[in-house]
Write a structure and sequence with these properties.
Elements (H helix, E strand, L loop, with lengths): L2 H11 L4 H22 L1 H10 L4 H23 L3 H20 L9 H19 L6 H7 L3
Helix pairs in contact: 2-4, 4-5, 5-6
Length: about 140
């Protein structure tokens, strides 16, 4: 049994039910942030213009929107939770250390704190998995 299987096994056996509520809230938060990211066109234009509008910046914007919307939806459902969380980690790492930290490390910078908490929760659910009240668990118990 390799390390990944041991981590999955540990996460499945040490997952309290209240953590499923946190997982659902995290998924909804990411979904809403993805929607707000693509609906705020002026902020999106500033972001792309600040990055000299090359192919990498356009791909990054689409990756963030896709990962937050669909990843948040999957996390909320508890379907492919670990994969959806792994796809969120680079985005949140970049948000914490390169975007929000430039605005200052203070209690007034709520976006920084939200990004830090979200990054920590995504790491937790990468290890802990989806839990008992999830689509993954339902599919595992209703396997035909």
């Amino acid at each position: 049994m390799n390390v990944v299987h041991r981590i999955e096994r540990w996460g499945e056996t040490h997952h309290p039910a209240w953590l499923d509520i946190v997982r659902i809230a995290l998924g909804v938060l990411l979904f809403v942030k993805g929607i707000s990211f693509i609906s705020d066109t002026t902020r999106l234009a500033q972001l792309v213009n600040g990055l000299n509008f090359d192919l990498w910046s356009v791909m990054a914007v689409h990756y963030v929107a896709f990962a937050h919307i669909f990843g948040g939806f999957l996390i909320a459902l508890g379907s492919m939770t670990r994969l959806a969380c792994i796809l969120q980690i680079p985005i949140l790492f970049f948000a914490v250390f390169f975007v929000n930290l430039r605005m200052g490390f203070s209690y007034l910078n709520s976006e920084l704190w939200l990004s830090v908490i979200t990054l920590l929760l995504v790491i937790v659910f990468t290890v802990a998995g989806s839990g008992k009240f999830s689509m993954d668990e339902w599919m595992r118990t209703h396997d035909h």
